[in-house]
Structure formats: C-alpha cells, structure tokens
C-alpha cells in the first residue's frame, strides 16, 4: 500500500549536526508532497522551535511537538494539547533541585530557566530561541499550562540514571524519556509521539499501513512501533535500529531523502 503520511523526527534525523535540513532532504520531501504524500514533523522541541523547519518545508500540516504534548498546525490550529498537573510541576522542581540537576520549563511556548548559564545558552543556540532567566523562585511561578519540563545532563549514563530515578520517584504522575544523550523530557503519562500519531491518523482517516515514520532516539520508539513502516537513521542506537523495518543513511548523509526515495516515491 502507498505511503500517504510520512512522519519525521527533527534532531538527529531530518536535521544534520549543524541543525540544518539538507538540500537533498528538502527536495525529496517536496517530491513526496508533489505526488500526494503528506509530510509532517514529530519532535520533542517546542512548537516555536520546530515551526521554522516546517515553514522551510513549505507545508501547512499539523506538527507534533513537545514529544506529543502539543499538535498544532503551521497556521496555528491546535488539534491536541496536554499539560502537566501544576502540583506535579512543583514536586518535580523540588526533586530536581534536590538532585542539583539543571531543569527548565516550557510554558505558553516560552522557555524559562533559573539562570542563563552555559547549559541554558547551549540549549538556546540549539533551539534557535531565547529563553528567560527567572530565578529559582520564578520557576515555581510557571506551573500552569506546562506541556514539558526538560532536565539537561552531562551525558548518556547520567540521563539513563535520571530517567530511572524520576520514574521511580513519581510513578504514573509523569513520563520521563531520554530524547538525546543529555536530554530528559518530562511530560504527562500516556503522552508520546505514538498517541499523537494516532490522533493524526483519525483526523486524516488513514490506516497504520499507510504511515511511514523515521527517527533515531528513544523518544521516537513509540512512534516507530505505531507506524505501519518504520525507518531508523544510520546514527540511531542499536536498539532503535533493531525495532525498525529498515535502516537508512545517517543524518549527515541525508538519510531522510534516502528513505523517501526507496519507499515513498513511486
């Protein structure tokens, strides 16, 4: 059956290490759209951070952001939104500060952190946006309408341990997932890229077998397992590769374009 919906992750997938979409990826996506395939993005990024890339692709479709906590079209229509309980936000802040972890909060598509240190500046540069330093007390004032909190660690081992600690501490009050070696995303339980993909399928009246998804990280796994056909990037972990139907080139060699040419374009 023809692929009618192609869903791609951003970081480590559609984007190269310079946070750019290669000319090859752009052209392949344009060719897929021209033949009638809908192409969209599913990312852990904030909507405001993902939007410029969707505009580069010249598509006005719902994009999955905040790792599934917000589905919003390029033109601004909200299809789905999920926010952490305010008390949970406070409790997670307490715990992370006790652990001396760097943590930031997204509220109303704006970024807040206690101080603009090297970690905060690094995230701002990656995301292409400017956050606001509000002090530790100020973070506790940002507990309403929070789709995601983000812990940034020193590396993969610390992130794995952090995910385990957070999940053990808060149980079914949160879902913690490592989206890259140094990022731990904290969202509502039951919210992920797969649940958002299901919402899109229902809206578009599509079946799973008509969907192809591509990604590289642990937070992509639910989506990759949900899609009818799944593709792992060449730079993905061995486990992500093991659950996918196909492994493409890495993100420095336009792996998205290679997958589109092989499985989407007729």
Automatic annotation (TrEMBL):
<dbReference type="GO" id="GO:0005829">
    <property type="term" value="C:cytosol"/>
</dbReference>
<dbReference type="GO" id="GO:0000287">
    <property type="term" value="F:magnesium ion binding"/>
</dbReference>
<dbReference type="Pfam" id="PF08282">
    <property type="entry name" value="Hydrolase_3"/>
</dbReference>
<protein>
    <recommendedName>
        <fullName>Cof subfamily of IIB subfamily of haloacid dehalogenase superfamily/HAD-superfamily hydrolase, subfamily IIB</fullName>
    </recommendedName>
</protein>
<dbReference type="InterPro" id="IPR000150">
    <property type="entry name" value="Cof"/>
</dbReference>
<dbReference type="InterPro" id="IPR023214">
    <property type="entry name" value="HAD_sf"/>
</dbReference>
<dbReference type="InterPro" id="IPR036412">
    <property type="entry name" value="HAD-like_sf"/>
</dbReference>
<dbReference type="GO" id="GO:0016791">
    <property type="term" value="F:phosphatase activity"/>
</dbReference>
<dbReference type="InterPro" id="IPR006379">
    <property type="entry name" value="HAD-SF_hydro_IIB"/>
</dbReference>
């Amino acid at each position: 059956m023809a692929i009618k919906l192609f869903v791609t992750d951003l970081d480590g997938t559609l984007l190269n290490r310079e946070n750019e979409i290669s000319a090859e990826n752009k052209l392949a996506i344009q060719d897929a759209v021209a033949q009638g395939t809908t192409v969209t993005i599913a990312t852990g990024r904030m909507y405001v951070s993902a939007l410029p890339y969707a505009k580069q692709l010249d598509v006005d479709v719902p994009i999955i952001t905040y790792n599934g906590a917000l589905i919003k079209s390029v033109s601004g229509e909200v299809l789905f939104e999920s926010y952490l309980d305010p008390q949970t936000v406070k409790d997670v802040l307490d715990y992370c500060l006790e652990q001396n972890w760097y943590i930031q909060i997204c509220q109303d598509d704006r970024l807040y952190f206690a101080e603009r240190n090297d970690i905060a500046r690094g995230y701002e540069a990656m995301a292409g946006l400017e956050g606001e330093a509000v002090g530790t007390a100020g973070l506790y004032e940002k507990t309403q309408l929070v789709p995601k909190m983000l812990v940034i660690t020193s590396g993969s081992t610390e992130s794995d341990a952090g995910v385990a600690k957070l999940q053990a501490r808060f149980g079914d009050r949160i879902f913690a997932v490592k989206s890259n070696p140094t990022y731990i995303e904290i969202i509502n339980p039951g919210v992920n890229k797969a649940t958002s993909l299901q919402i899109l399928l229902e809206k578009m009246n599509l079946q799973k077998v008509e969907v192809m998804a591509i990604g590289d990280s642990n937070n992509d796994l639910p989506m990759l397992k949900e899609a009818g056909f799944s593709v792992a990037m060449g730079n993905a972990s061995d486990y992500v590769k093991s659950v996918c139907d196909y492994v493409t080139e890495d993100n420095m060699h336009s792996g998205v374009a290679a997958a589109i040419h092989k499985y989407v374009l007729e």
